[in-house]
UniProtKB/TrEMBL annotation:
<comment type="similarity">
    <text>Belongs to the glycosyltransferase 22 family.</text>
</comment>
<comment type="function">
    <text>Alpha-1,2-mannosyltransferase that catalyzes the transfer of the third mannose, via an alpha-1,2 bond, from a dolichol-phosphate-mannose (Dol-P-Man) to an alpha-D-Man-(1-&gt;6)-2-PEtn-alpha-D-Man-(1-&gt;4)-alpha-D-GlcN-(1-&gt;6)-(1-radyl,2-acyl-sn-glycero-3-phospho)-2-acyl-inositol intermediate to generate an alpha-D-Man-(1-&gt;2)-alpha-D-Man-(1-&gt;6)-2-PEtn-alpha-D-Man-(1-&gt;4)-alpha-D-GlcN-(1-&gt;6)-(1-radyl,2-acyl-sn-glycero-3-phospho)-2-acyl-inositol (also termed H6) and participates in the nineth step of the glycosylphosphatidylinositol-anchor biosynthesis.</text>
</comment>
<keyword id="KW-0472">Membrane</keyword>
<dbReference type="GO" id="GO:0006506">
    <property type="term" value="P:GPI anchor biosynthetic process"/>
</dbReference>
<feature type="transmembrane region" description="Helical">
    <location>
        <begin position="217"/>
        <end position="233"/>
    </location>
</feature>
<dbReference type="GO" id="GO:0005789">
    <property type="term" value="C:endoplasmic reticulum membrane"/>
</dbReference>
<dbReference type="GO" id="GO:0000026">
    <property type="term" value="F:alpha-1,2-mannosyltransferase activity"/>
</dbReference>
<keyword id="KW-0808">Transferase</keyword>
<feature type="transmembrane region" description="Helical">
    <location>
        <begin position="98"/>
        <end position="125"/>
    </location>
</feature>
<keyword id="KW-0328">Glycosyltransferase</keyword>
<feature type="transmembrane region" description="Helical">
    <location>
        <begin position="265"/>
        <end position="284"/>
    </location>
</feature>
<dbReference type="InterPro" id="IPR005599">
    <property type="entry name" value="GPI_mannosylTrfase"/>
</dbReference>
<keyword id="KW-0256">Endoplasmic reticulum</keyword>
<dbReference type="Pfam" id="PF03901">
    <property type="entry name" value="Glyco_transf_22"/>
</dbReference>
<keyword id="KW-0812">Transmembrane</keyword>
<feature type="transmembrane region" description="Helical">
    <location>
        <begin position="239"/>
        <end position="258"/>
    </location>
</feature>
<keyword id="KW-1133">Transmembrane helix</keyword>
Amino acid sequence: MYKILHLLSYDAVQLLVWLPRVVHALLAALADIKLYSLVQRLENPDVTKWTYFCQLCSWFTWYCCTRTLTNTMETVLTTMALHYYPLPGSKTYSSSKYLTLVALAILVRPTALIVWLPLLGWHFWQEGDKLKLLTHHAFPIGVLTLGTSTLIDCMLYGQWTLVQLNFLKFNVLHNVAEFYGSHPWHWYLTQGFAVVLGPHLPFLFHGCTLTPKRYRILLVTVVWTIMVYSLLAHKEFRFIYPVVPLCMVFCGFSLASLKAWRKPAACALMVLNLIPALYTGLVHQRGTLDVMSNLRQLCASTDPHPDVLFLMPCHSTPYYSHIHCPIKMRFLQCPPDLTGNKDYMDEAELFFANPQGWLTATYTKPASLPSHLVFFDVLENEIFKFLESNRYRRNTEVFHTHVPEGRVGRRIFIYERRL
């Protein structure tokens, strides 16, 4: 996408920021339509309509579907693959189409295999001609997609590289992801799943008692996915995003069965989802995006040449995609340790252990000082002496969140050095 804009000389920063979001929105819309089409061919119009309504109401889908995350693409491909999956009675069943989409989902994010393992196993168990399924569909599609991916990776890395294997080694076998935070094993059961589904949760439980047996494999898939992800130390809400469309099928059955209470329940569901969707999408933690708009104005500066240092937890803000000009920028690094050193501390941890000392030791000469510092308000008092002694003055203040926590403050400050 970026390369096409570059070749057409349309790589303006606003297009770089917004075009990927628009494309993700269109893909998410296509996935929603595929979910509607699947249920339409399996159930009566009432169930179809309310399943679609539940999917469109999901606050977490609103929050995630336009974000350029591999989890978003994994969810889109999973939902589209489900449209061609051989559920009993399905009229859109196609082994080659659904397996191709599953293969693409696994290439994008290998953990998609977790979601699809029970579905693939159930299909193989139910399939009459298992040999044909393997030789005519599974193996050719697997070899073609994995082979193409590996060929591209080898060309770009310049050496033999199997990215999917590296992903599994890094995140699962060596559990390096735990370096970025860990939660107790029950986190998805007690918090994560409830937050992701939000107001849909009671409808899911009710719908599980009403849906026909042919949908049981979808429920097994949801339970299996939650349990497997619970075994991994590093947990995030977005990891279980791919099971949300599966849950909406059960929610649709629940709403369709309510009869007299249907409209009040639907209104409550929409309002209770709309509030967190709008708040998390437009207000909560918006400062790290807004601050990049302020920094973008430095592109016109030449005297002195801008030099921006982000004193924030690493990866807090976007980077050059939201600036798109060659100003000098730097953020605190946090690469995981791959040597097994138990005393390892990344640059961000070293900084936050002693912010004033780190800055003094790093910038011993006035000429090396950055022209701009970007940090959360909670850090201001800790580095006040450094700011004063080096003539930094606050010139911008950006709102970030109503719920500050730890190193993440309510506001973001931009300090500029006065010469």
